[in-house]
Amino acid sequence: MNLSICTISFRHQLISIEEIAQWAQANHFQGIELWGAHANNLADQPHYDKHWLATYGLKTTMLSDYLPLLVSENVLYHKVQHLCRLAKHWGASKIRTFAGGKGSLDYTDSQKVELFNRLQKICDWLAPHGLNLVIETHPKTYADSVTATQEMFACVDRNNLQLNFDVLHVWESGAEITHALDELLPHINHFHFKNISSESHLSVFAPENVYAAAGTREGMVPIFEGAVDYQDFIEYLHLHHSAGIANADTSLEWFGNHCKQVLSRDRYLIQRLQQTCLSA
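The structure corresponding to this sequence follows.
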């Protein structure tokens, strides 16, 4: 499992990309997931790029952004081309977005067709650049359940449409996470790991809270201290999928306080568990 930090974890801190890279290297991460806002803000400093990042032994595992799927096709096309340039500059092969802004059950048939057509177009625009469009499992989007996510992939039917399997949000949907993993396996090329103390605190990840500097962080806990059983999930990955998906890119998506302390310890505990799995 190749572990990345998310630069979004440092969104409310006065910290440079150089300090993030130095810290990630010192704490034995393999990559960074670069937030689109950060990539945009670094565009006028082109010496920061994939080659610079490689000097720290790191790579950009994913460029995470929010494509406005239902704007005019011309506006969307230019946004996608801009992200292609940023992804190429940073050496990322994946652009993350969300499948719309409402739950799968809230779509009419015509709205579904429109959503799937837009995802097809984006995939077709990315393909000549060798880039993948990665949809994240997330509530209040079309990828809010295993069944809806499978339908989306079947209808869009593009090889470069792939899935970011956010373990917490899959659990939040009510699915059994290892069963969901097996069902969605052909599409997965990235994981997000985060945890919560209990189901009652899930609203802490609502966008209007999690992106707000003054938002609450109550209930956010380290990977192995929450309601989702990550030890069981990681052991299952290595037991049943060690030849492939167990080596996928995984981002530790921490939104809480004390970023460096929490991420450093989570990285250590995950890699120690992996070593135990490999030696078993």
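The two ends are 17 Å apart (CA to CA).
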